[in-house]
Structure formats: structure tokens, C-alpha cells
Amino acid sequence: MFCEVKPKERAGVINPIFTCQPCGAQYASIGIKDCIGIVHGGQGCVMFVRLLFSQHFKESFEIASSSLHEDGAVFGATHRVEEAVDVLLMRYPHVKVIPIISTCATEVIGDDIDGVVLKLNNGLLKEKYAGREVHLISLHTPSFKGSMVSGYDVAVKDFVSHFAKKDKPNGKLNLITGWVNPGDVTELKHLLAAMQVEATVLFEIENFDSPLMPDGNHVSHGDTTIADLTGTADALGTIALNRYEGGQAATYLEREFDIPTIIGPTPIGIRNTDTFLQNVKKLTGKPIPESLVWERGLALDALTDLAHMFFADKKVAIYGNADLVIGLAEFCIDLEMKPVLLLLGDDNTSYPNDPRIKALQENVDFNMEIIMNADLWELENRIKNEGLELDLILGHSKGRFVAIDNNIPMVRVGFPTYDRAGLYRHPVVGYAGATWLAEQMANTLFTDMEYKKNKEWVLNVW
Ligand code: SF4
């Protein structure tokens, strides 16, 4: 039995798992209040990304584009950034933060967005917008390397390093959630409130689940303020839940401001949630209350009803953001399942050094493959041509056709999930997330048993 970690052996990508770096920078940007990003590139670099956000959350988001055309792609288009900043500031009097997000085209032609920021700071902002608080931040996210995951990581780090400023201790915990859903944020806030911990939740996207109000529709935005970002340097500690989505920012705060920092684990499942709470306790000194022990007990009870009877030895393939995939794999193992195939969709070469992956390699007692720089063809090909038998697929909606075409039950998890209702509202982290995920997996397997007439009678006597 062995667990192999290797890059896909084929050149090219067929049905990618991820989109590009600017997408991640845009996701981090919409988590900040009074912020509208300008993506310096073709309009499609915003249009398709906004569509993904809107499909996933069923909400509207505001992101701008410098709208690069042929002449700009040849001769340079920094003047379009200058115009875009001016138009944005005129059109939106509340906007205070404008990240300038580069793309593949503008990085290749070498447009100097740092130079534009300097020019605008010394020119337009002083002359036309004197007295108005405006922060222009250049985010370099060329899409010919990395993925939306690394783009998010770069943006979070650059936002934090732009604003963080030492003043006096604020007694708060920095919580960098990574790429999560509103339901996850609600659950994380609940856990922290139960421990009476005051936290700055960074790139806070709980309000991406927005109401329809009597005065009209609501444009969704994040709730992390400039003051929140500035205060990160005065925190009593930082927890970044995800190594690859916020880890760089946490390391920066530790290095620059001596903020005690813990990176990971992604609190998916019982043991990772236990570790998260222990880490909160370690950094804040606050005890874990009896109420959370009770919640843990409820979750354990729910999982015990399912694990051995229904999940044992079920073979699972998981794809998506690396932290999510690893957390889900650990959870599946705890539920006696066999995550036989993990697909990590970008070219990050540090995955083999991830301690969680090393632990999987040392401990799994079944054959497991972890494919880096993977695409969805890696999954499809194994099923169609190499005899891979699966009981369940876990991943986002872009892989739905692999599941549908091959009659394999699938639980949608990750980003984007647009073909099932309301998934963004449910957590996958914390004890509530563990219960919800396990019950989703169980109910999906039950439905499959019924449709395929595969021991469906068991459900009569359970
Ligand atoms: S790959 Fe390049 S052109 Fe396509 S969306 Fe990403 S940044 Fe824009």
C-alpha cells in the first residue's frame, strides 16, 4: 500500500480544475469594504470571473476593468488604468481601496502598474481628490503561473502588508479564513463567540449571502475594513486556516510585527476542528467551553451513525483547492472511507513538502494517488480507461459531467458550486460542517443505492 505524489504526466490541460490568478485577487478584493478592484486586462478577465462569483453566490458584485484593447496590448495601456481610477472615484464616492490587478496580457507586455500607482498618488489623488482617503494597491497576478488559489494568497498578503501598522495591542485574534463560503464564516464566528474570543475575520465574506430588501436588490461586498487591516499588526496572534490561501500574509505579520502565528489545519472534520480550537486557546488563553464539547458530541454521534455502516471502504476522488482537498481527505479517512485519488489543480511545487501530505503518505493503508497540476481529464481518464472504481466524487460543479456521464454519486463542495441550491449557506468547517458534510455524503449515497437498486433495502432497517 502506498501513497504516490506526482505531477500529471501529460502536457496541456483538459478541463481545468481552477481558473487563473486574477480571479483569486478579485475574490480577496470583494472581501474588503469600500473597495472596488480594477483588473488591468481584457474585459473577459472580469466578466467571466464575476459570472463565476454570481453563479456561485447568486448575487451581484462590483469589479472594474481597464478594458484592454488591441492597441493597448501592443503599445501598453497604463493610461487606461489612470482613466479607470479617475472614473471609479468619480462614479463611487464611497470607494477608498482600489487594487490594480494585473493579468497575463499586461504582465507580458510589462505594463508598469507600480509606476502608475506612484504617478496617481503624486498627481491625480493630490490634485483632484485631495482630502479623500484613497489607497491604490498594485497586485501582480500573471495568469501564466499559479492559479486562483495563489492569486488569492498574493492579494491577501499584499493587502495586509499595505495596511498593517503597529500601534498598541488590540487584544484581538487575526483569523484569515482562506477561500470559504458565508456559511463557513458564520460557523467560525460562532466557535469564536462561544470561546469569547474577539477576532478580526479577514476578507470577511459572510454578507456574500445578501438579503433582498424592500428598497431593492443589494450589491454584495465584504466587511473587512481598512481599520481591521491596519489593526492586524496589533493583534495577539494570527491563525491562517489555509496554508495556500492566506499563509503568506500570516507569515508576513509574524516576520514584520512578531505576531504569534499558526497556519492550519483547515478545520474540516472533528480532529481538525479540535486542533483549531486548541490553537485558539493557545493564542488567546481562553478555555474551550462545555457548550462546544456538547456540539462536538452531537457531531460525533451523527458521524458514528454513518461511518462504519455506510462509509467504510467507500472509494472517493476529491478535486479542488489544495487545503480543501487535503482537509476533506483527512475527514474521509476518519470516516473509514478511502480517498484513493486527490487532484490538486495548479503548478505549486511545494505540495510534496506539505506536512499533511507527508502524513497521508506515511499513514494510509490503501493505494492513494495525489496528482499535482491536475485537470479533470485525470479523473475522467482513470474512470473510463483505467478501471478506477469510485463510490463518490467530492468537488465543485465544473466536474459534474464526469460524475453524470459515469453514474458516480457526487457531493458538490468547493468553488464554484452553481448546480445545487444554497450550498454557500452551509459550512464545511467546524463541528456543524462535519455533520453537514457527512450527512450530505450519506444522503447522496442513499439516493444512489435507491436508483441503482443496490441494497436499498438496508435503508428500511437502518
Ligand atoms: S487567463 Fe489571462 S486572459 Fe484569461 S481570464 Fe485569466 S488573466 Fe484574463
Defining traits:
single chain, 462 residues, alpha/beta, Rossmann fold, 3 domains, six-stranded parallel beta sheet, four-stranded parallel beta sheet, 19 helices, globular, binds iron/sulfur cluster, ChlB/BchB/BchZ, oxidoreductase
What characterizes the major β-sheet?
A: 6 strands, parallel
Q: Can you give the helix content as a percent range?
A: 40-55%
How many strands?
A: 14
Ends apart, CA distance between termini: 33 Å
Under CATH at level 1, the class of the largest domain stands as: Alpha Beta
Question: Quick one: CATH superfamily of the largest domain?
Answer: Nitrogenase molybdenum iron protein domain
Number of domains: 3
What is the CA-based Rg, rounded?
Answer: 23 Å
The helix count comes to 19
Q: Name the strands of the widest sheet in spatial order.
A: 1-12-11-10-13-14
The SS-based structural class is alpha/beta
Write the topology of this structure.
Elements: E1 3-7, H1 21-29, E2 38-40, H2 44-57, E3 64-65, H3 70-75, H4 78-91, E4 97-102, H5 104-108, H6 113-122, H7 124-127, E5 135-139, H8 148-163, E6 173-176, H9 182-194, E7 199-202, H10 226-230, E8 237-240, H11 247-257, E9 261-263, H12 270-284, H13 290-311, E10 315-320, H14 322-334, E11 338-344, H15 355-363, E12 368-372, H16 376-385, E13 392-395, H17 400-405, E14 410-412, H18 430-451, H19 458-461
Parallel strand pairs: 1-12, 2-3, 2-4, 4-5, 6-7, 6-8, 8-9, 10-11, 10-13, 11-12, 13-14
The protein binds iron/sulfur cluster.
